[in-house]
Amino acid sequence: MIVITGASSGLGAALTQHYAADDCQLLISGRSKQKLAAVTATLTPAQQDKVVSQVADLSVADDVSRLFSQLSTPPTTVIHCAGSGYFGPIEQQNPQAIDQLISNNLTSSILVLRELVSRYRDHKVNVVVVMSTAALAGKANESTYCAVKWAVKGLVESLRLELKGCPMKLIAVYPGGMATDFWSTSGKDIDTSSFMTADEAALMLKNALVATQHGYISDLTINRG
Ligand SMILES: NC(=O)c1ccc[n+]([C@@H]2O[C@H](COP(=O)([O-])OP(=O)(O)OC[C@H]3O[C@@H](n4cnc5c(N)ncnc54)[C@H](OP(=O)(O)O)[C@@H]3O)[C@@H](O)[C@H]2O)c1
After folding, report:
1. What whole-number distance in Å separates Cα of residue 95 and Cα of residue 114?
2. Whose CA is nearest to atom 43 of ligand 1?
3. 31 lines ligand 1 (CB under 6 A)
4. Residue 218, exposed/middle/buried by CB under 10 A (0-12, 13-18, 19+)?
5. Looking at the whole model, is its pTM more than 0.85?
6. Count of domains forming the chain
7. How far is the CA of 202 from the centre of ligand 1 (A)?
8. Measured from the CB, is residue 32 less than 6 Å from ligand 1?
9. What is the pLDDT of residues 108-121, one digit of tens each?
10. How far apart are CA 192 and CA 200, in angstroms?
């Protein structure tokens, strides 16, 4: 079973389609029931039979717990794609929107990783955390977005030390610009025509997650080019 968060849109939705095409059993999650249903509707009936969807706001601990309580056995992989953007010069940023940014990116990652470590640290589970190239370098007019993504990177790197010797693995993913709904929901009006499609990024990520007996890709930067 593969769990994909943020599956109602963008990268998570594209990953859902790629893994469903391989006949994988999936638990997919997002906040919007309608958007999750629309993603499921793109799958064949046979693929749909293997997909369970669950609405969850991952910034709420009870929702996170309920999501993983759906599983009767540990998942093989969890891909945490949920997140959102918010941009602009800091003096023009709205405190409520900053709170939302922190909830969607940082609180959600803390709660998801807390739940996963508590349930599965002694199981062979690959936990993939999608951050951004904004977690790797500062960017003007992206200060609060960089701040939350850098914080998630700190979370992942610290938990790796706590999980030393455990079969659970944390895989850090840093994508560059993708042409998804992320930009319209973030309020940033930019031309995304040269950006990767979600489908392209999903394909590269899925390929990178293929591990061998003695190795796996632990950190992945997906640049647009
Ligand atoms: N697009 C880019 O250029 C880009 C670049 C680098 C990194 N990223 C990162 O990549 C990830 C995926 O982005 P995307 O482009 O696929 O964005 P997207 O199309 O806007 O999708 C975001 C997904 O996250 C979900 N989500 C947001 N907040 C949530 C919450 N509190 N609880 C549960 N689900 C929540 C959304 O659910 P609902 O829609 O159902 O509310 C949606 O499924 C994000 O972490 C983003 O920061 C994006």
Report:
1. 26
2. 6
3. yes
4. exposed
5. yes
6. 1
7. 13
8. yes
9. 999 999 999 999 99
10. 14
For tokens 């940082």, the residue is 106
pLDDT tens string 139-171:
999 999 999 999 999 999 999 999 999 999 999
**CATH number for position 214:** 3.40.50.720
- Say how many CA atoms lie within 13 Å of 113 toward its Cβ: 26
Q: In degrees to the nearest 10, what's the CA dihedral of 11, 204, 74, 3?
A: 10
Amino acid at the residue 40: T
Note down the domain range covering 103. 2-222
107 lines ligand 1 (CB under 6 A): no
Radius of gyration for the chain, computed over Cα atoms and rounded to the nearest angstrom: 17
Tokens 């003096």 belong to which residue?
91
Three-class SS of residue 123?
coil
* Cβ neighbour number for residue 123 with a 10 Å cutoff: 14
